[in-house]
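Before going further, it is useful to explain how the protein records used in this thesis are read. An example of such a record is reproduced below.

***
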Amino acid sequence: MNFNNSLPEWKNTGTEPSDSLKNDGFKAGYKPSANVFNWFWSLVSKCITEIQSKLSNEETARTEADKNLQQPTFTEASTRVNITSGETLSTLFGKIKKFFTDLKTVAFTGSYTDLSNKPTSMQNPNSLTLTMNGSSSSYNGASSASKSWYAPTSAGTSGYEMVSNGSGAPVWKPPSYAVCSTSGNTAVKTVSISNFKLTTGVRVLVKFTYEHTSSTAATLNVNSTGAKNIVVHCGTDNIFVKDYFSWLAGETVELVYDGSYWVAIASDMRFITGAQSATVVIGTTKTQGFCDFRCDGTNDTAHLINGKIGICRHCFENLDKTAYASPYQGTEHIAFTMSPFEYTKSMRKVILDLKFSNCKAYAKLLADMMKNYLDSYDIWDTFDYIVPVPLHKKRLKERGYNQSELIAKEVAEYLKIPMRTDLLIRTKATKKQSSLVRTERVTNVQSAFKCTEKCDGKKILLFDDIYTTGNTAQSCARELANNGAEQICALTLAIHVQIKLPIIAY
C-alpha cells in the first residue's frame, strides 16, 4: 500500500507528563515544558509508523489470498470422497478432480469394471435390417422376427422436405413451387416439380407467366400425372378458370388437389376473392354471374350477357335504378351527366370486384346492362370521342388494367364512338377518392390531369365507373375545356345515392 505522506521521525522521547496533568489538562496561563511536547510528538510518530506498517502487511496478505482464490493450487484426492462444507479450495478441487478422473474411464473409454450392477453382456435385437444411404445390412439375433429402418439416400439441401417415394427409402423434396410458361391461349397448363406425387391434399405453388385467355377451362398437369381442372369453390359450385375469370400474368396461385380438381385457395393478386357469388342457370346451361347468394331467381331462363357470364332477371330487375338514368344537370364545364344505377347492393359488389379482384369479364356485362338506357336517347352520334378517366401509371401497374377503360371500350363499340385513351393522362398520383371526405376530394384531384393535344371544337363523352362528388369528372372536364373542347358530357355506370341534381329533359 502506498501512502502519499510520511510522518517525520521524532527521535526526542521527552518526558511523560504526570497523571494529574494528563487528567486535568493544560489550564489558562500554563506553559507546558518542552519535554511534554517532545514526548507527545515522539509517541504520535511511532503510532502512525506502526499503522502504516500493519496496513501494508495486511494488503500483502490479502493480495496473496486473492491470488490463491483465482489460481488455487491443489492435489488430486486419493479416493472418491464427497465434498463437505467448510473445506478449503485446495481440498474441494482435489476431490472433484478424483471424480472426473474416474468418470473419464467409464464415460469415454467404455470401461465400467468398477461400476456396481453393471450388465454382463449386450442383448442382441431380433433380426434387425438396416437400410441407410441406399444400402442394406442385416443383424440377426435369436428370433426370426425382423425390423426395417429407412433413412434418406443422401444429405438434404437446406429448405427441402423429406417425403416417401412410395417404394422404400424416403427422399428429399424441394418446395412444391413451379413456374408455368404455358401460353395463355393453351388450356392445359404443364409444370414440373421434383419428387411430386399426385395425391389428395397435395399443395403446389404455381407462378403463371401468362394470363389464361382461352375460352376452354384451364387445367393443370404436374409431371404428366394428368390434366385436372383448376377451379375456385363458391358455395357448392366450382367456378372453372376461363378467359372471363383468370389470374393475371405473373401471378402466383396456391392450389390444393381435392381428388378431382386443383382448387385455388390463395393468390398474390386476390383474383380468387373476386369469384362470382352464384351460378346462374340459363336454360339448361350453368354460367357464372353475380347474383346475390340469397337469390331465389337463379333458375330464371333469361338475361345471359355476352354468352359467358350473366345475371338472372330477378336480380337485374331488383338492381337500384337512379333518377339519373336519363341525362341530368351538369356542372361547370360538364353539359350533362348520366348514371343508370345506384352504387348499392350487388352493383357496388360487382364494381369492387371488377376494380380490385381481376373480374375483368364484368366489364362486358356492365356495358351490356347500360345499353337499355343508352338506347333511349339518340344524342350519342354527336360526340367525337369517348374518353375514359385515366389511372396514374403507378396505379395502373399495381392493378394491371383501368376498369373504366374496359367498360368504355364496350360502350364505345356499341355507340360507334371512337375511344381515346391517349387524349387525357393522369400526372398526379392522387389518393383514392373513396378514402377521403368530401372536402378533401376537391383538392386531391386538382391539376391531376393533362390533355396531350388540342381538341378545338370537339364534343367529348367522359366515362367513369362511379360518380361520387363529381370532383374527378370536373377536374378532367376543366382540362379538356381549357384545351378547346366545345362540349363535355359525363357518363358513369353508377352514382352514389346521396348525389341529388336537378333532372333535365332530352
Remarks:
- Residues 269-288, 301-308, 433-438, 499-506 have pLDDT under 50 and may be disordered.
- The longest helix spans residues 34-70.
